[in-house]
Amino acid sequence: MNKEEREERDEWTRMVLSDFGLTEWTVRFRPGMHNEGIVLYDSKEIPITFDVQRPVDYALILHEIAHVLSGKGGHDSIFADKYTMLVRKYMRPKEWGFSGNPGLTTRPKPGQN
Ligand SMILES: [Zn+2]
Questions:
Q1: How many angstroms separate the alpha carbon of residue 52 from the centre of ligand 1?
Q2: d(CA 31, ligand 1 centre) in Å
Q3: Which domain holds residue 91?
Q4: Could you tell me if residue 37 is inside a domain?
Q5: What spacing in Å lies between the alpha carbon of 87 and ligand 1's midpoint?
Q6: Could you give the CA distance from residue 102 to residue 90 in angstroms, rounded to a whole number?
Q7: Which DSSP category does 51 fall into?
Q8: Is the distance from CB of 67 to CB of 47 less than 8 angstroms?
Q9: % pLDDT > 70, the chain
Q10: How far apart are the CA of 69 and the centre of ligand 1, in A?
């Protein structure tokens, strides 16, 4: 991903956090070998490591934010509901009429898998 894509990612992430009143939370992106993230509830930080060779992993960002919204229950049903809600809100394909979401390009079209 290039600088423009990283800036777009950062802006998008701030928008999602803001939409849920999570303005005290900080997502810190740093380059690494894999895409992975963790939620630090005490310091309200989400360090996310990303592989610079790959496109921005918007699903991973939403995954970590779903953890913030659902608490420390791990991958339980509350987490699943929050994650599903976030995906529905932010990862709708462009042809369905949602704009301003760069996370859409890799999503299959309806009818595909
Ligand atoms: Zn998780």
A1: 21
A2: 19
A3: 3-22+52-96
A4: no
A5: 14
A6: 9
A7: -
A8: no
A9: 81
A10: 12
103 part of a folded domain:
no
CA distance 52 to 48: 12
74 Cα: distance to centroid of ligand 1 (angstroms): 6
Q: Quick check: 90 and 61 in contact, CB under 8 A?
A: no
**Domains in the chain, number:** 1
Place of tokens 């950062």: 10
Q: Ligand 1 centre and the CA of 67: distance in Å?
A: 7
Please, which pLDDT band fits residue 99 given cuts at 50, 70 and 90?
very low
- Residue 65 Cα to ligand 1 middle (Å): 9
DSSP sequence for 91-113: ---GGGT--S-GGGTTSPPTT--
What pLDDT score was predicted for residue 95? 55
Residue 64 counted as domain residue: yes
What is the chain's mean pLDDT, rounded? 84
Rounded CA gap, 26 and 8, in Å?
A: 16
SS3 25: coil
